[in-house]
Amino acid sequence: MIWGVIKTALIAMVPIIELRGAIFFGAFTYNLPLWLAATASIVGNLIPVPLIILFARAILDFMKRSWKPIAKAANRLETRALGKSEKLYKGVVLGLLVFVAIPLPGTGAWTGALIAAVLKIRMKVALPAIAAGVIIAGIIMSTLIQVGVWTVTTINS
């Protein structure tokens, strides 16, 4: 069971999968109780956030000064983050929290941390907002899974 928890936390660190996919993996692939899969996913999803906030700006700046294809990719990434951040200018903390909490593709801790870095939001402001958003997303996903599992179990009974 401990390896299932570790693997679930590691899956939650992957940018595209994040918490939303890791809870499914933990619950259905590794047969973890839903609360444990959600907890491991939340912890795993939060581990890279401070590193992204601290280093994303410097990495983007470095990439923009390097080889043209890399500079082009860095500019696209920054433009995408700024495009998503337009919604956050008013009520930065609440906006960041809601953005991360919505369990849709393109939202989540990685993008929220990248937006915080691009907007130069301080760690002590961004991290609690992103953490609260990840917890809310975990609750939403766990609830959706629980309802889905209950419905399937009921139908098959």
Characterization of the model:
With 157 residues, the chain is an all-alpha fold. It has one domain (47-156). The chain is 79% helix and 0% strand. It is built from 8 helices and no strands. The chain has helices at 2-12, 18-29, 34-46, 49-64, 68-85, 92-101, 109-118, 123-156. Helix 2 (18-29) packs antiparallel against helix 3. The relative contact order is 0.14.
Elements, N to C (H/E): HHHHHHHH
List the uncertain runs.
151-157
Percent strand equals under 5%
Shape: globular
Instruction: Tell me the total number of β-strands.
Output: 0
Q: Tell me the radius of gyration.
A: 17 Å
Number of helices, counting only DSSP H or I runs of 4 residues or more: 8
* Structural classification: mainly alpha
Indicate the percent of residues in helices: over 70%
First and last CA, distance: 28 Å
Number of domains: 1
Q: Give average pLDDT, whole number.
A: 87
How is the main sheet built?
A: none
